[in-house]
Design a protein that fits this description.
mainly alpha; about 110 residues
Length: about 110
C-alpha cells in the first residue's frame, strides 16, 4: 500500500513543516499537489516550442490546418477549462485528425 509520504524528499518534509507553522491544516495535501505532474503544462510548453521552431514547410502546415475540426477544438478547450480532461479527450478522439485538433484546442485554453 502506498502512503502519502512514501517518495518524499527532505525538501518536501521542510515544505510541510513550513506550511504547518504558517497555519495550514492541509500541509501534506498541498505538498502532494505541488509534486503532481502537470501534463497540460508540459504539452503547452511543447506546443510553444514547436510554434517558435517550426519543422514543417508551408505546404504541409496548410494541410495540417485543413484537417482541423475547429468546433471540436473549441469544445475540447472548454472542457479543459472546466477541468474535465476526460471529456476533452473524448471530443478530440472522435475527430478525423485528433492530433491537429488537440493542438488547435490550445488556442482556446485559459492558461494560468
Amino acid at each position: 500500500m502506498r502512503t502519502t509520504r512514501q517518495d518524499w524528499t527532505a525538501a518536501d518534509y521542510d515544505s510541510q513543516e513550513i506550511l504547518h507553522r504558517l497555519g495550514h491544516r492541509d500541509a501534506a495535501a498541498r505538498v502532494n499537489r505541488a509534486r503532481r505532474t502537470r501534463p497540460l503544462r508540459r504539452a503547452w510548453r511543447t506546443l510553444r516550442t514547436r510554434l517558435h521552431h517550426p519543422a514543417t514547410t508551408a505546404a504541409s502546415a496548410s494541410v495540417a490546418v485543413a484537417g482541423t475540426d475547429w468546433a471540436a477544438a473549441r469544445a475540447a478547450a472548454d472542457a479543459v477549462n472546466r477541468g474535465d480532461t476526460g471529456e476533452a479527450d473524448r471530443i478530440v478522439q472522435a475527430t478525423d485528425d485528433p492530433r491537429t485538433t488537440a493542438f488547435a484546442a490550445f488556442r482556446f485554453i485559459d492558461v494560468e
